[in-house]
Amino acid sequence: MNRGSLACAGVALCFATQAGAARPKLSDLPQGKRAPTPSQALPGSIPAHATVPGVQVIRGPAPPPQSDVEDAIAEAHLADSMAPQVTPAQPAGISQAEVDVQREQWVTVLPKHGCVAQPNQRGGSKAMELPRDAGVQLLELTRVEHKQQKSVLITTWVALDTATRGVKRIHEQRTALKHLGNGAGKFALYGYRTADGIELVASAPGTQMHAAGRNIGGFSECGLLQTTLSTKRSAAAVDIGAERQLPPTKDEKRDIARGVAVTTHLEASFAHVSVSKLGSDKQPVLSVVVRKESGHRFSPAPSARPIRHGMFR
Amino acid sequence: MRYASLFAVTGISLLTACASSQPSAKAPGGAACVARNDSPVIAPIGARQSSALALAKHGKRTLAYAVGADDHTLRTIDVDAQKELATTRLGGSPAEVLVTQDGRVLVTLRDKNKLQALEPSADPSAPLTSLCSVDTPGEPIAMAATPGDKSVVVTSGWGRSLTRYDGGSLKLAKRTTVPREPRAVVISGDGKRAFVSHAVGGRISVVDLAGGATPREIRVGDAQTKRRSVLFGFLGSSGSDSGGGSRIGCQGYALAKSVDPGGRILAPQVLVDPGNPFEQSSGYGDGSEAAEVASVAVIDEAKENALEASLDASTVPQRVLPSSTPRAECLLPRAAAVDEKSGSLLVACLGLDSIVEYDAASADPRRAERRRFAVPAGPMGIAVDTAQHRAVVLSQFDHSISVIDLKLAPPQKSGTLAKSAVTHLALSRGPGRATSGDIALGRRLFHATGDSRISSDGRACASCHPDGREDSLTWATPGGPRQTPMLAGRLAKTAPYGWDGAGSDVETHLAHTFQRLGGSGLSDKELGALLAYVESLPTPPALPLPDKAKVERGKALFFAKQSGCAGCHGGSVSSDGKRHDVKTRVKSDAQDRFDTPSLRFIAGTAPYFHDGRYSTLEELLGASDHKMGHTAHLSKQDVADLASYLRTL
Predict the structure, then answer these.
(1) Contacting residues of A for B325, CB less than 8 Å apart
(2) What pTM was estimated for this model as a whole?
(3) Which residue of A has its CA nearest to B300?
(4) Which of B177, B160, B339, B372 is nearest to B256 (CA)?
(5) CA A202 to CA A243: how far, in whole Å?
(6) pLDDT one-digit tens code per residue, B424-457
(7) Which end of chain B has less neighbouring CB within 10 Å, N or C?
């Protein structure tokens, strides 16, 4: 979201801190294990009519995001607004023939919710491009589902035939999650414990998320971020941050349309999670603090029309 | 006077009782110190360690006893009614206060080297009665009580000591020498060990209360010896270590014990990167990243080590997000307390003028910040009333008490600190230093963190000059590696200023300093106020002479023509005000002549030399022959005698 087109003439973050609720204990977290990648052989081909609910595969590369301000609106509703028949507009300076070639050479997987990734790849994206001639590929889709006040991490492995765009479910694992805290907007933090650590799942649709700690790093732009804290050492800690631009107000939209400089409103969440075991601790001690902040960034006057970039604008 | 609307000074000062409470008889401890009331009138609330403010239960009332360091008083405040009840005048400047289980109030008198015991009467609006005062090593500051109050331990900053007294009679039981500038102290759960923080030096000392003369040391940052060895390598032997990246703990003024989980001692501090002495820098430190970052070291009480994760200065939450601006950090932590109900660590942050609430269970509490509460200027003391789930804060600069309701939910809308949860009470003001005028303004400026007029990275004057002294660090500067000089008592008549002697007057030197810190500078009025404050800084107390004959021999050597010490370090300020080439120029030194520093209070300002290369005076005297004076002809005993004399200056 912090693209070069947005010059930070001034950034002022202010506080809207949140006191932690009762501190969760490690034993409060449901036991689970990271889902192993299925080892079964993939089918040689998958017919075009084979589908998996919530997984759409379109022809061509992923549609690029709109302008920065529009992103804020678009990202929050991206999954729901995407349709199989997405046919992005033709960009200026690109011939129709070139567009057609691109559309023939690539396919894009668009999960309705959550992220798609190659197996064993931490992180993920909200859209994955694959060459049309890649054959049958195993993909990992993750999402968090809430039912009856219970949260579950669902990991689904699907096989995709890039030639036919047919999709087949291979395996699905459901892992119970403990809710650990809420931040700004829809930011929520969950976790479960494993034999040697804690798996953290941060969910914040429509935001970019980063994770940082000693020997820990991560980035997600698909609204879901997973990271691991080891309990094998005396201590481990990670910071997870999520930020999103808030949609412009009615007046700001008018300013944008008139080409007037605008203030971009930001909403950020920070989660700090640590686990430590000192000499007197019988069990590792878990600490979770989720804080939210808001701020703004002054942006130069945008052009009346959003800046068009990418292959299909 | 930001909180002027909340203050009601006039009425309070007229209504409160006020009386002098000089000790009835000075005693080395004994029956006079024992509580006189058969049943205690007050009962302590909260942790068994001192602060600038202590809470006690008096019947159904909750009382706060707040030290008045400026006007030498102890004030009694009814916390529930938010009313000042009484003022007890003391015989010196109080540092901290501790309420004992037998109903006494103990106060350290920092400038008098005394521990005074007082006792309240049944009438809480009456001034306290002094029972006794006992001698302490130089500059008593903090106290802590062992389980059952069997013993009380006292830290002495300038006196470098932890002294244990009998809890009842206050008779001296044991004195342990600890490293420089001890400040806060807490007692281990079993009552057998004391953990002592230090304002400088990046360490926590562990003292066995029963036996064992030598305290153990827990490093809370990178070892300073490593930094100095880097410099030695730089001076002579091969030095492959660039010296970059290591950080040293500083500003260790506060300690608190976590209750749940237990076994954790929390030490708010800052981690300092003074820069690479191999290279000239553009300011003080490398400038590539913040020279000082806040930290809360987590000490494992059982293992006597610091949790490495709590010393990680590499990441602050805001930097996780590319466009976020790091918030102002707590660079001058001065007091700490733990709220058992929420498991929070509350840190009083000078300069920031806030109480910052962290999760006490975090492996790195600095990154587990929960809330901030704005308080009036100069928060120096804090205590938690667990039963009422509130914290009481003493703001020394604004002479006020703040009560923070920890139960209140934080604001859900952005834009404010948690102001709604805090109420303030202005305290009466007696005559004294820094209570008004230029000195008061100068004190605020001296401790102003995050002030772009002072520095571009949040550092305050007090960051490098805690208590107006020095941080014991050698900084990379444009002129080369430079040891921070002491200010208190060393400023007057010591022109020129700066190690290179470039500042003909203090104003010129300060302007230069602000420039190096990236600050925009102060107005003439503010500059004058800052100087007034610095010149008013109390000097360290005189220490007793260890061996008068030894000192006399050392004095004779100092003034002997053959040694040549007094040639440059003579006069009332121990400096000739000139620059000399002491044959020690190193690669990153911009020039080879250095201003003769004053030797006043040199006993407490190790390490020594303009680049801090010598750990002790003896080391300096042994290694600087023919560079500054002549010492090769001196015997080992002579050197020891000379050093003894220097320590009296």
Answers:
(1) 11-13, 295
(2) 0.86
(3) A278
(4) B339
(5) 12
(6) 999 998 777 666 688 999 999 999 998 999 998 8
(7) N
